[in-house]
Amino acid sequence: MERVVQIRVGMMFVALCVSLQAAAAGKADGAQGGGGGSVDTISHSLTVVQRLEALLVQGNGSDVSLRVETPNADEVKVIQVHSLVLTLQSPVFEEILLNRNSSTLVLKESSDCAVVFDKFIRYLYCGELSLRLDQATALHKLSTKYQVTGLQQGITQYMTQNLARDSPSGHVAGWYEYALQAGDLTLRDSCLQYMAWNLSSVLQSGEWLTVSSQLLMSLLQRSDLILQSEMELFAALEAWIIKNEPDGLTAENALRAVRYAMMPPRELFRLQTQSSVLARYQESVRDLLYMSYQFHSASPLSMAKFFDVNCSLFMPRNYLSPVWGSPWVINNPTRDDRSTSFQTQLGPSGHDSSKRVTWNALFSPRWLPLTMRSMYTETGAMQPTRVEGGRPRIIITPATSSADFAGVNFQKTVLVMAQQQGKTVVRHVYNFHQSTEENGDFLAEADLYRRTSEYLIDSSLYLHIIVKPLYQTLIATKN
What we know:
Layout: E1 5-8, H1 12-33, H2 45-58, E2 64-69, E3 76-81, H3 83-89, H4 91-98, E4 104-108, H5 111-115, H6 117-126, E5 128-131, H7 136-145, H8 149-161, H9 172-182, H10 185-197, H11 199-203, H12 213-220, E6 226-227, H13 230-244, H14 248-256, H15 265-274, H16 276-280, H17 282-297, H18 300-304, E7 318-319, E8 325-331, E9 338-345, E10 356-367, H19 370-373, E11 391-398, E12 409-420, E13 423-432, E14 460-470, H20 472-476
Parallel strand pairs: 2-4, 6-7
Antiparallel strand pairs: 1-5, 2-3, 8-14, 9-10, 10-11, 12-13, 12-14
């Protein structure tokens, strides 16, 4: 059964009552104490809310009837309300009530909004409501339509905080589509970032096959996708094409967004012989497959002499495969410096598949940024590196140098994991070349001391380091 949660947001009507009460108390204090004594507060705001709810339930003193009708439906919902409450809470209701010529207001609502309309009205009286995941969109629609700003912001916050929650058919893609239509940029960007950073779980969800072609292309074109491998992405795309049967142009554009050069040659051979989708659209991606095979057969330096390797085809995404990085769990992350070592493949090219690079990573919980060191340094004194009040920092360097590194620029990516709704998700992504100090904001807002910190899982800092070989530096020497 889906969990029901409550949203409480300040209510204008109650605030008005409390303000009047405080003003009266202030006048009494001023009259009796001359302004010199202490001020105490007597609050019965909860009683006021309870009485307002009773007014709604019993209909006492009601001066307006709301008749909620749904197109193509026989069922009609009638709610007895008070114009004063609706006017205080919603400028849209205020305008409607000013221009009404009857005690009955007929409101046309969609079926999903009609189901939760009584919840919406109750919020106007009580300043709180209970809801499930499947009711969030409808309540957001109503709060937007009637300009109930507090509720609208509360629902947006609820949705952004519950992206990771499990639901039978999935909900993140649906919320993204709604946010795009409603113009809610905060919700839209939150949904898109969640899907990009947790793509593997999205691909396995029930709603993947229902995403729109627009959302599909928005994801496929990103380089910051976090998933196991490019092969995982192709398999999901193939399933989407088979299920949705898009027009030829949509299918071709989607298939051309796949980074075939990031797949080993054996996987490319298997796709060409076993994939029905690739067999159908092979002519559309033949040039990409040809360039991918060339990429795997020659060194990147040789490729750069003839092809533009500074394009998305040759740029890795954030792959979680052990070939490209390693997880790193840091217990008690505020205690002292930690270090670890791991290996990655030199590059995605088949030419480099047998070459490994060993990386050393150092984590310091209290590293002092260069811009702050002068504050703690006297002339001629050695500058401290770690002091109380410093910031967390990670340095990642190769254990050895090699001629094979020529023309390769290694970008490091650190994923910071968190636990939300019982699920491990990516909370932050940091990109740098050697040290997180290049960012300046690495874990700047993180509370690593509190055991229940949202940045910690079981009191430990869960990271995943990814090394991405990029070839931009080859372009400068190409000519």
